[in-house]
Amino acid sequence: MSCDVLVIVEHNEGRLKNVSSEILSFFGKIATDNGVKVVAFIFGDHISEKLYCDIGKLGIREIVSHVNNELDEQPGLVAGMIADLAKKVKPKLIVMANTVKSRDSAPMIAQKLDIEMFSDILNIDYKKTVINLARLVYGGKAIEKIKLLNQQALITVRPNVLGNDENEAFIPTITKLKTNELPRTQTYLTKAKITKEKVQKPINEADVIIAIGRGLRRVEDLIMVNDLARVVNGVIGSTRPVVDMGFVRRSHQIGQSGRSVSPRLAILLGISGQIQFVAGISKAKTIIAVNKDSKATIFKSADYGIVGDIYSIVPILTRELKKLKLQNR
């Protein structure tokens, strides 16, 4: 078995991670349109027929799987396993999500295969003869363009930049690796697992985002924003200056130097519309911007705009949405 692209799939207890769904649907479309052979590799515990079907629905025809409950927190084992598989299937491109897990294992895979690695990719233009990539460098101040010709490479892809394509669904063929094929090197001993309590849903998985800019003057005014977020079941994000002021956690910063997001709805409060922020929110399905400056750049990126002070508009929005919610019960 050989392939052009090997996609390394991540999941949470049998549920595909959003970023893996994006990558699979992106390459599923390329496989259909350009005749590129794509193989998905999934490993770990909680792998089920439903998970195989979910991958097939994204346009993937071939899956290699390895069911093993010993792979958590074992980047060395994972890297050895993926490197061995890559030597067998000889892909031109190995694709992983840019996550905490891949940051541990991806460099080891590239080292074992003696190939180039490019992390945090924002854009992929895949052709049979050339692959063009783009990523941010120098703290988001510049874009690096990368051209791959004949060399094999490994890339990690930033979440929420590829979008989701509607592809033809397939019943994929499954190749299962045996347990004894797992290389037993660089293992770690897990003494205990401590689960951090989740205060909010991760911003890159949120359906609704309320993003705040410098129009919010005091940290105490977050109470007003939180009231709106509760009504729409949204997650609060922000621009970089608001994070620097200590109003919002850095993990909820949106933009080139923060997270890229693709919510169903984004409500932007007091945000001017700098290109660095817009780059991170551009995949939102619907954008509503509120700004007291009628000439604010953010209105160019918005589907709906409200000219007004957020201190006047937000309480009205919250009140009216509460009424609408009660009527629809």
Question: Overview of this structure, please?
Answer:
The chain is α/β, with parallel strands linked by helices and 329 residues long. It has 2 domains: 177 residues, Rossmann fold (3-Layer(aba) Sandwich); 125 residues, 3-Layer(aba) Sandwich (Rossmann fold), CATH 3.40.50.1220. The protein has a 7-stranded parallel sheet, sandwiched between helices. Strands 14-13-15-16-17 form a 5-stranded parallel sheet. Helix 5 links the parallel strand 13 and strand 14. Helix 3 crosses helix 4 and helix 5 packs parallel to helix 8.
CATH topology of the largest domain: Rossmann fold
How many domains is the backbone divided into? 2
Characterize the largest beta sheet: strand count, sense, and whether it forms a barrel. Answer: 7 strands, parallel
Distinct helical segment count: 8
CATH homologous superfamily identity of the largest domain? HUPs
Order of H and E elements: EEEHEHEHEHEEEEEEEHEHEHEEH
What is the averaged pLDDT score? 89
The dominant shape is: elongated
**CATH top level assignment of the largest domain:** Alpha Beta
The amount of beta strand, in percent, is: 25-35%
Secondary-structure arrangement, i.e. CATH architecture of the largest domain:
3-Layer(aba) Sandwich
Q: What low-confidence regions span 5 or more consecutive residues with pLDDT below 50?
A: none
Rounded radius of gyration (Å): 22 Å
Secondary structural class? alpha/beta
Distance between the termini: 54 Å
Strand order of the largest sheet: 7-11-6-1-4-5-12
What's the total count of β strands?
17
Helix share, percent? 25-40%
